[in-house]
Amino acid sequence: MTNRKNTKRIIEHDSFIGKDKKKENSPIIGVVGLGYVGLPVAVGFSDNYDVVGFDVNKSKIEELTRHIDRTSEVSSDQLKKASIDFTSEEKKLKKCNYIIVAVPTPITLSKEPDLTYLKSASTIIGRNLTSDTIIVYESTVYPGTTEEVCIPVLEKYSTLTAGIDFHVGYSPERINPGDKTHTFKSNNKVVSAQNEYALEKISDIYQNVLCAEVFKASSIKVAEASKIIENTQRDINIAFMNELSLIFNKLDIDTHEVLQAANTKWNFFPFTPGLVGGHCIGVDPYYLIYKSKLAGYTPSLLSSARAINDDMPAYVVASLLQLVAVNKLNLQDLRITVLGITFKENIPDIRNSKSIEIVEQLQQLGMSVQVCDPHVSQEQLDESSPVKLTKRKHLEKANIVILAVPHHEFDLEKSDFLNSLLKNNQDIIMDLKGVIPKDILSKNMTLWRL
Fold first, then answer.
1. Which parts of 187-254 fold into alpha helices (H)?
2. 296, burial (CB in 10 Å: exposed 0-12, middle 13-18, buried 19+)
């Protein structure tokens, strides 16, 4: 029989800076994990509630206290105005009525779910859990994780009983890094819970801060599954485009011209070929594949899509070598410039970056590669990484320019920008996003596109 703690909740409103009277009787919201998802969630809730923002990374807490967000998702002014108690002291979670969990859920080297952060967060919450608290998981997981993995950890370390002493729900995150239009507050929100009482409570607190609709899923598993297929759907569609690119390359057809023609039909979906990195699209399908295999079914379509997208860096490198051979370039004098190594444009996020994989593969072949990315600092890269960044003004002229990520800082509409990077007008440009206008290039230049 589980022992219950009759723990009295400690309310410490005075610890919040900028507290106003209308918040005095409102619940306190805790957010565990202050990264790309958790920080915007914490800031969003702080408009209506006092918030405890918890993260185990003390350096991050110090920076946030000084109104610095290295993810660039939240501005300094937003942090100054936010009623958030940033802390690494886990005991402060005791005073929270709601605790939202937004920690990373990566994959292992064998491409299976890595729930280390999720279990650790659940352990910390369990140690500091008080009666009547509602915990809401936002981290992306396979269906069943919240009830089969997280709740047992919460019960073990709190000695409380889920559904009686405390309640658990799941609400999948929909943060899109770098997107200032589809934000935490403007996105429709799916919520779910282990019982009707918790579902109504969770729905209410989200509805109080969102400018969008709240959808109540029938179960936690349904909500978990809905998140997984959002990103898996995109992975499959991009894989289809990438495979078309492989086919059309063999047929000597420009894929982007084909898509331009096909897009004239009213119900054609406008996906394009590209590298699939980041912490969502390139990771989440593996969670569903893993859970499906446990249930006795191996999903061939999902697995094939993942294989195609994961192999694109190798395809780009192989295509580069083919271009070198066709153009009879001297390997000893060859220099390559790679523009952009984040997983998408105009953000500093390099998680699972396929552009970095391209650079590393080229370096392993002994190629001379210089990398420029105005959104990334050398400190972000692993100390053992062979990738070294070069500022735009220090780039030496190259024979091949690979446009991997079209940041705004790269003035791609003007021929002067690209010409300044190349040795002569007979060099090669590899446009992995298909954004460089053909009419700005010299006729003698070779333009290769996915």
1. 196-207, 220-250
2. exposed
Please report, to the nearest 10 degrees, the dihedral formed by the alpha carbons of residues 157, 159, 162, 167 taken in order: -70
Give the pLDDT score at 18. Answer: 42
- How big is the chain by its Cα radius of gyration, in Å? 24
Task: Identify the weakest region by mean pLDDT among 26-30, 300-304, 330-334.
Answer: 330-334
Q: Which amino acid is at 200?
A: E
- Whether 193 and 334 map to the same domain: the answer is no
Total structural domains within the chain:
2
CA distances from residue 362 to 89, 316, 347, 356 in whole angstroms, order as listed: 45, 10, 24, 10
Q: Which two tokens stand for residue 84?
A: 């958030």
What residues make up the domain containing 70?
13-217
Q: Do 187 and 56 share a structural domain?
A: yes
Does residue 222 sit within a domain? no
CATH of the domain at 51: 3.40.50.720
* Under 8 Å between Cβ of 124 and 90: yes
Average model confidence (pLDDT) for the chain?
92
Do 208 and 61 sit in the same domain of this protein?
Answer: yes
Q: Among residues 96, 150, 211, 280, which one is catalytic? A: 280
**Is residue 7 scored above 50 in pLDDT?**
no
Name the β-bridge partners of 207. none
Domain membership of residue 235 (yes or no) is: no
Count CB-CB contacts under 10 A for residue 307: 10
Q: Note whether residue 344 is domain-resident.
A: yes
**Phi, psi torsion values for 131, nearest 5 degrees:** -60, 145
Residue appearing with tokens 């004239």: 264
Residue of 139, 118, 354, 349 whose CA lies nearest to 228: 139
- Output phi, psi for 27, to 5 deg: -65, 155
pTM: 0.90
Describe the strand order of the beta sheet including 28-32 as a list of residue ranges.
84-87, 50-54, 28-32, 98-101, 134-137, 167-170, 189-193, 214-216
**Is-contact 104 90, C-beta < 8 A?**
no
- Is 211 catalytic? The answer is no
Single-letter residue type at 151: I
Nearest to 80 by CA among 104, 64, 58: 64
Which contiguous run of DSSP H or E holds residue 410? Answer: none
**Would 259 be classed as within a structural domain?**
no
Tokens at 396, concatenated? 């030496």
**Lookup result for tokens 């999720």:** 118
* Amino acid in position 209: V
